[in-house]
Specification:
Strand content: under 5%
Order of helices and strands: HHHHHHHHHH
Helix content: over 70%
Radius of gyration: 21 Å
Number of helices: 10
Number of domains: 2
Length: 219
């Protein structure tokens, strides 16, 4: 009886949270069904791990997978930190910066994981890869310009290194057909991983600093 009462109480208090977290799950599964109907792709190929689908060794794409994990962690830290400090009057500018940084990170994560600029837009939506690159770069540039006053007050070396690494990766992507050698891929993808790590370190350090000061202030 006590358990049933506790479950009813929790259901009343948690239903908004449950609606928020389970709606995307239902939408995702609905998209799986839609793709199955529209393309005839096997359900298993849409729900299982890609390495299982293609029967590839576990280490295939290890650098890309590591990058996606770091992107995800960075976005989570930024958005969590925003939620914690957004009501502090003295930190509202930092909160907006963290929210924007988290959303930009999500965009970069989605582009990296689902290959927006390489496959989705060019091959399926008819949008040239260069246009997608330009749009993504425009978002990042807007972010840097819009929050330049905040950025310049931080230790922005890591952010600058991240942007430099990403710029190198974009340039390398365009000349890749000219130098199709294994060492070139190591240089290109290694630079991207270097950039992701630098981007993550910058935002995690910034978030930690804000959370630590918020806690010490006792507000």
């Amino acid at each position: 009886m006590m358990v049933a009462s506790a479950l009813r109480r929790q259901l009343r208090s948690l239903w908004p949270v449950m609606l928020l977290i389970y709606t995307p799950v239902v939408i995702t599964l609905g998209m799986v069904v839609a793709v199955r109907i529209g393309t005839g792709t096997a359900i298993a190929n849409l729900t299982r791990d890609p390495l299982q689908v293609v029967s590839a060794p576990f280490y295939i794409g290890i650098v890309s997978t590591a990058g996606a994990l770091i992107w995800s962690a960075t976005a989570a830290v930024c958005i969590f930190s925003y939620v914690v400090i957004r009501h502090r009057a003295a930190r509202r500018a930092h909160a907006r910066f963290l929210l924007a940084g988290g959303l930009v990170t999500v965009l970069l994560l989605l582009d990296d994981v689902f290959m927006f600029h390489e496959m989705v837009f060019p091959q399926h939506l008819g949008v040239p890869e260069k246009v997608v690159y330009a749009a993504t770069a425009g978002v990042v540039l807007w972010f840097l310009v819009a929050f330049r006053s905040t950025i310049l007050q931080t230790d922005f070396l890591l952010l600058a290194l991240a942007c430099a690494a990403f710029s190198f990766t974009v340039g390398a992507d365009f000349i890749e057909p000219i130098f199709p050698y294994p060492a070139f891929y190591l240089l290109e993808d290694g630079a991207k991983l270097f950039g992701i790590v630098s981007w993550a370190a910058y935002f995690i350090m910034f978030s930690y600093g804000n959370l630590a000061e918020d806690r010490s202030s006792g507000v």
